[in-house]
Amino acid sequence: MRIRQRISGGMLAVAVCLSAISLSAAARAADAVPPVVPVPALDVPRYMGVWYEAAKFPNRFQAQCARGTSATYALRDDGRVTVTNRCFRADGGREEAVGEARAVGSPSPAVLEVRFAPAWLSWLPMVWGDYWIVDLDEAYTLAAVSEPRREYLWILSRTPVPDPAAYQALLGRLKDRGYDLTRLEVSAP
């Protein structure tokens, strides 16, 4: 019986040790990918206007867009933003979706939610998607938009084709922040 107790006690010690190692490894893995953080400051009126999609993580709601994707932001009197997304399909036809963005109460104006569902559905939380500006150059010519899970990413430029050096620098910052850039798809102008 004493032998059995020693084995059980030894097995328990091994199990505890393995659990501690697993928890430690999980904590290090979680620390390896920093949380998504929005830009600390945003001049909302300066952000308004036309932005061209330079690249994105592919997503189902833009599957019809073949080229020329852009977003136009216009500040409304009520503080919300009208968002007009446009693109060209492969057949040359044009797509357009009009929505709205709103601040979500974060201390940063770079944390927004956007919806393209009809206004009468705006009371439903699931029609609003996260829109976090996670990178923005000082000149407001190149930006990255994402959300807390890094499921979506858009790189936006004030010109149809961004400055190559600025674009590469932005990619480097996004990689350092834990974005999987192998998922990135360059958008056709």
SSE layout:
Blueprint: H1 2-32, H2 44-47, E1 49-56, E2 67-75, E3 81-88, E4 94-103, E5 111-115, E6 129-136, E7 142-146, E8 153-157, H3 164-176, E9 185-186
Antiparallel strand pairs: 1-2, 1-8, 1-9, 2-3, 3-4, 4-5, 5-6, 6-7, 7-8
Keywords:
single chain; Lipocalin; globular; disordered N terminus; 3 helices; 189 residues; alpha+beta; eight-stranded antiparallel β-barrel
Q: Can you tell me about this structure?
A:
Helices cover 25% and strands 32% of the residues. It is built from 3 helices and 9 strands; from the N terminus they run H-H-E-E-E-E-E-E-E-E-H-E. It has helices spanning 2-32, 44-47, 164-176, and strands spanning 49-56, 67-75, 81-88, 94-103, 111-115, 129-136, 142-146, 153-157, 185-186. The model is unreliable at 1-30 (pLDDT under 50).
Brief characterization of the structure:
InterPro entries: Calycin, Lipocalin_ApoD, Lipocalin_bac, Lipocalin_Blc-like_dom, Lipocln_cytosolic_FA-bd_dom. Belongs to the calycin superfamily. Lipocalin family. With 189 residues, the protein is an alpha+beta fold.
Strand content: 25-35%
Task: Kindly name the structural category.
Answer: alpha+beta
State the domain count: 2
| Count of beta strands | 9
CATH superfamily of the largest domain: Calycin beta-barrel core domain
Helix-strand pattern: HHEEEEEEEEHE
Tell me which CATH architecture of the largest domain applies here. Beta Barrel
Whole-angstrom Rg:
23 Å
Subcellular location: Cell outer membrane
GO cellular component, one term: cell outer membrane
Protein name: Outer membrane lipoprotein Blc
Domain Lipocalin/cytosolic fatty-acid binding: 42-187
